[in-house]
């Protein structure tokens, strides 16, 4: 170890609100723990949010703060926000003083702000990891406090200081997606005909109502075609859509997909929301993908994510309001054009960052003068 006086550095991870902010933090912590088993970790998140459950399940301690994001559609709900920010800053400062971290790493979301601000005020180095092509408010406010900003997309100079940007990609468990099963075997393993095209559609653990409604609207057309569908409905709509399960041997409904690599391997085409982490996984898989951005995502960042891929001829985008009328024609057109499929796949794979987590941790260790 280059840094012999500090064999067990301490790290605080500040993130929350959605899985898109939480799972990158966990992935970075896992990589540090693998390379530096004596390191100590603490997460800070928002009370009552999913991080308070997900982080302990991943094997890390977490402390909660009372903070919430800006309510864009319920402006009156923001009256208490200044008090919450003040209170969460005080608690974050107390946590940081007691834990005495060597670095604080923020992966975005409103829950990351107080701890990052408190750390910066104490002179503790902070690192930002930005998942999206359009940064959130918290990361934009913290840009001058961080020593490094790890981004998933190029051309972020208009948002962040040029000298701080590191184009690393998003931290994911890339090893899961680098050695996928052979496609025919994957289709057979999932109960599909290996000689027919298969579409994999998913919208996250809760699902995507716009995409679900599109399949419901086009069910008869789909049933009478040669297209097979693995349809992950998500938890919210599964019971109401279960009546469609079993009506066609070519269509399977699942509330949740536990083996994503197998589903990716089997697919000829993929239909998905344009969340940052889904895009990062899919860029390693390289299957032709149709993105349907969630229109209510903060600052419409999913549309910006998808558009950045469309501009590179790496994906297709359909607006949520057009999905029911457009999904079948777009899929049929794409399945009939193998050259277009090949070009989309090639361009998507070029954008993949298989060593993103390792590269982010290398930046962290370099700052702390650690070799591991």
TrEMBL record:
CDD domains recorded: GT28_MurG
EC number: 2.4.1.227
Membrane topology: Peripheral membrane protein
A single Gene Ontology CC term: plasma membrane
UniProt signal peptide: none
Domain Glycosyl transferase family 28 C-terminal residue range list: 198-348
Name of the featured protein: UDP-N-acetylglucosamine--N-acetylmuramyl-(pentapeptide) pyrophosphoryl-undecaprenol N-acetylglucosamine transferase
Gene name in the database record: murG
């Amino acid at each position: 170890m280059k840094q012999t006086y500090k064999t067990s550095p301490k790290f605080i991870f500040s993130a929350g609100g959605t899985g898109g902010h939480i799972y990158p933090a966990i992935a970075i912590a896992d990589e540090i723990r693998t390379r530096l088993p004596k390191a100590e970790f603490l997460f800070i998140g928002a009370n009552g949010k999913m991080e308070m459950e997900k982080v302990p399940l991943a094997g890390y301690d977490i402390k909660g703060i009372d903070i919430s994001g800006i309510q864009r559609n319920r402006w009156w709900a923001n009256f208490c926000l200044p008090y919450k920010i003040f209170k969460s800053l005080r608690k974050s400062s107390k946590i940081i003083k007691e834990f005495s971290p060597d670095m604080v790493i923020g992966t975005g979301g409103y829950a990351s702000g107080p701890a990052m601000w408190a750390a910066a005020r104490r002179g503790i180095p902070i690192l930002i990891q930005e998942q999206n092509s359009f940064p959130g408010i918290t990361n934009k406010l913290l840009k001058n406090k961080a020593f490094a900003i790890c981004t998933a997309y190029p051309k972020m100079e208009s948002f962040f200081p040029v000298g701080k940007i590191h184009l690393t990609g998003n931290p994911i468990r890339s090893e899961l997606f680098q050695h996928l099963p052979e496609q025919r075997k994957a289709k057979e393993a999932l109960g599909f005909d290996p000689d027919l095209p298969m579409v994999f559609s998913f919208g996250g653990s809760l699902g995507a109502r716009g995409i679900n409604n599109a399949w419901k609207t086009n069910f008869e057309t789909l049933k009478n075609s040669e297209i097979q569908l693995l349809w992950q409905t998500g938890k919210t709509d599964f019971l109401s859509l279960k009546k469609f399960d079993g009506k066609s041997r070519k269509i399977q409904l699942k509330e949740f997909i536990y083996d994503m690599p197998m589903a990716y391997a089997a697919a000829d085409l993929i239909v998905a929301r344009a969340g940052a982490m889904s895009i990062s996984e899919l860029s390693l898989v390289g299957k032709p993908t149709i993105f349907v951005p969630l229109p209510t995502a903060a600052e419409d960042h999913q549309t910006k994510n998808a558009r950045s891929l469309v501009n590179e001829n790496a994906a297709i985008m359909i607006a949520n309001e057009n999905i029911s009328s457009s999904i079948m024609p777009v899929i049929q057109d794409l399945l009939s054009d193998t050259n277009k499929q090949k070009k989309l796949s090639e361009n998507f794979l070029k954008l993949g960052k298989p060593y993103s987590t390792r590269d982010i941790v290398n930046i962290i260790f370099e700052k702390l003068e650690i070799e591991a």
